[in-house]
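Bump. Still looking for Sodium:proton antiporter structure tokens.
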Amino acid sequence: MGSDVTFLIFGAALLVAVVLPPALRRVPLSSPVVLLGLGCLIGLLPVVGEEQFSPLVHRDFAEHLTELTVIVALMGVGLALDRPISLLRPASWRGWSVTWRLLGITMPLCIGGVALLGWWWMGLTLPAAMLLGAVLAPTDPVLASDVQVSGPGQPSERTGDIDETDEVRFGVTSEAGLNDGLAFPFVYAAVLLAGAPSLAAWVGDGGLASWVGFHLVGKLVIGVLVGAAAGWVLGRIAFQSSRWSLRVAERGQPLLAVAALLLCYGLAEVAQGYGFVAVFVAAVMLRAVDRGHGYHRQMHGVVERLEQLLTLAVLLLLGITLTNGLLNHLTLGGAMVGLALVLVVRPVFGWAALRIAPREERVGGRPLGRAERLATAFFGIRGIGSLYYLAYAAGQAHFPQLPELWSTVGFTILVSVVVHGVAATPVMSRVGVEEA
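Sorry for the wait, here they are.
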């Protein structure tokens, strides 16, 4: 595609992205649906080559673009959460009960369920099935914006209250903030299995023990510690430094959020930890230093604008690839796995996790209502994080069934964006009526 045509297409798409959100505010259709559809239409143009934007051909570009988009979204999610939590105050963890159950119960069950379906329905090898389960497990922090909290100290559009009392939005937001990093150990498991002669050989050679000790526990702990330390230090400097030149909160310099997300991600990765986890934890720690300060809204605004631009690019490119060869290797089994995950697996496992030992999760003091549980379980949106994980794994090990995996993941994201995008407005409105 010529550069002039590229500028024309992306300029028109950016204009659509600017005017779209207000126009769709009360319409059962989300911006990602329209942007993805626009990308699909662009992909049908004769000037677009089949391999021009293919992630199979341009893996490095796909990996780094989606990686940046996810870490920007994670910083925005962490800054947006109003509900406090402290590593040193276990009592504060109770307010995140929904989050822990979605992470500790729903996500592992989804990984196992999708892996089993991939092996059974698609005939995938064990490493490929494990990779598919891990890639499709996380709730996406980018595309779930329609059912997430509004921002630091912002009232919910559904209830009119500060979003820390809106359990559905809080649950989906906090889950999306953490499970992108928690899916990484299982991606690594698939990569390690792909390089082993067999599962028995991998376990017998100490591969399983090494994976549990380092990839499952060690890298997670490092990510949490790096994020907590970096967020606390940056917050103390920005809000409480004795030198006015360093108290950027008073000067209203919101680019600290961009510096923080890049710095924390880089530090955690260099330290062999999970950068996604570090970025989210750092954002939460920044909020904790001076929770009510208006500077958080300024930082969140900058991150949100950057996220919108990156999301625009990713959705357009994904749409172009969907009508230009990405779905060429989609099988009936792959389509069934995608539909099953969005419509059955995630909702059922999410509902089961939220039904176990119901507690007074809500700040207002009562357990989740039936409509709230259903909505929280249903909105497990799959998206840009899945693209990153698959592109990353493809660069770490050889997966013979990689084209089929890309087709299945692309189809699943398409289904999720359409189903959840159309359902977001009416479902959230219905939940507000029933729980009022």
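The CA atoms of residues 178 and 277 lie 6 Å apart.

Edit: fixed formatting.
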